[in-house]
Fold this protein.
Amino acid sequence: MADPRGDVGVALATMRARCLIRGIDLADYQRLSEKVAGWDDWWNQWTAMGEHYLGLADRYQAAGWQTSAGAARVRAGVAFHFGKSLAVQDDARYRDLTVRSVDAVAAGLRLLDPAFERIEVPFEGHKVVGNLRRPRGTARPPLVLLLPGTESVKEEFPKWEEDFLSRGMATLSMDGPGQGEVGFELGIRLDYERSVSAVLDVLDGRDDLDLTRIAAAGVSLGGYYAIRSAAFEPRITAVLANCGPWTLGEEWERMPPLYRAKYAWNLGGGSEKTARERAKSLTLDGVAERVDVPALVIFGGKDVLLDGDRHGRRTAQALPKGELWMFEQGNHAVTDFAAEHLGPGADWLLTHM
Amino acid sequence: MADPRGDVGVALATMRARCLIRGIDLADYQRLSEKVAGWDDWWNQWTAMGEHYLGLADRYQAAGWQTSAGAARVRAGVAFHFGKSLAVQDDARYRDLTVRSVDAVAAGLRLLDPAFERIEVPFEGHKVVGNLRRPRGTARPPLVLLLPGTESVKEEFPKWEEDFLSRGMATLSMDGPGQGEVGFELGIRLDYERSVSAVLDVLDGRDDLDLTRIAAAGVSLGGYYAIRSAAFEPRITAVLANCGPWTLGEEWERMPPLYRAKYAWNLGGGSEKTARERAKSLTLDGVAERVDVPALVIFGGKDVLLDGDRHGRRTAQALPKGELWMFEQGNHAVTDFAAEHLGPGADWLLTHM
């Protein structure tokens, strides 16, 4: 197996629970695990899974089975996403798989949800993009912005969106600077909240959303973005940060090489040393104490990327209205106790936003 | 480990994909797998999982988080069900866990779904019971009866119900003779369709269901029940049988001892020989050819309980309007290709009923 660094094993172990809560079936994941013949083959196998479901979607659509077709397209898009989310070796292929993921998820959501809208927002000569969904049966729902992390994207969130939709909240999952299709043009930046403000400007005046109640919820580096957004964007009325770092660069050495390589690539390429310096500039120093809205910090005590005390507890304590849900046995993003924070976290936001 | 026959290993291997598609999280299943200290401990561990979620449900409910509380109660009830579904050693405990499962699922569905109704139907001096759910936004939805198999119950189906509800169909998951709470009084019987007819009699005249379109969908022995119901109950307009046997007793020897013991217990106790003779009387001989409505047979070529040719292909060929979805690599109930038949099967029924 062409995998001298053992990346396949690291990826399979760290991604399984995450893939499952985002909509991949365990049986598909198991079959993929048995087939992957090396790190280069990782995206082949995910691509094959995605194409399998696209083929099924075509058949379902030909039969007039819109819901099955939509679900299969979303599943395909999620598979394409996981095929490239940790891969850095081939920019052209990364771009191709990103576009296929974006297209499949959008096509699927369009079939599943007549209210689905893709929102493109001009931003600094380029654009940021959001997937907007509104719950059925609610005329002016409150809005939750779902913010992905370093190697994540809006395409990872269709399942998470359902936790909010089923509670009468609208969702806007966004790709900001450094993320997915937007990352082709705009790199990671400190002040992600400026892209959040641009999105809110575009939504301003809509009468099918209650824009007096807007929450930001983020995972991993998206947790950092959510807290920054709450600190600097006054329209945010509550925030949820799941395993966000206090400072991204602080724990560089404890990350597996696979993740360090990916983070370095996302941080603009160059050497790991440069990337690490850039990562250190992404910090909540001087930021967390400015958040004057209710804030929920979710963290896993067994997070292999970020230390629970130095990031989770520290963040919760620095937030003036911070609350901490610490899962002592939980991993990064607490994907192994998902039922205890995905739905309940949505309820917490609805109560506090 | 007090498990001379290796039942824990058999149960863990054969139940995993099934538990997952019915709503148990893999992370919970993994933790349980690591803790189970022997077959006697199997139900302890599932009971502990259920109680954990009931405790969370109480907290969520105290906070006013109805959706989270409902989901946690359903999850608890599903866990209680899996704790006793294969266990035969202690009737009092089986009964206790059955009642706890019934109560938790019903309490959860009541919180999640204002339209939920528990329907008790007088039947031969006792009763059969159904969980009725209607989709939002549809005044007169068609109805699908969900029929469990030998060691299954209506409490296993809340997730499956969602596949129908999201497509605008109502569901009635039922416990008939030999199943769950009804099994306390009524044993397994050939002519399960009589209990189906009793349920339909009670629904007759309702104007919130389209009773000109009623499908029966069953899993494992429930597949046999669904086909019998379509053969003898003229109100059934389409049928789906997932891994139903042609004759239950035919493959007795190939079943693992754990399953043989459970099936013998469900078939009324006594010796395995007696049970096997009773099981042979459950047959589609002379029945399948009477089904004059569209019928979908779903089967797994790697089913460890029932041979794909002798049960799946034979049944599909004998049904005048039979269609076969054979998953050559699929296990019993094809829980390892769930995305390819749960939703699409619901769409197939909607098209044909």
User: Anything to note?
Assistant: The beta strands of chain A are 117-123, 126-133, 142-147, 170-175, 210-219, 236-242, 295-300, 322-327. Chain A touches chain B at residues 16-17, 20, 25-28, 53, 56, 60, 63-65, 67-68, 71-72, 75, 136-137, 166-167, 335-340, 343-344, 346-348, 351 (CB under 8 Å).
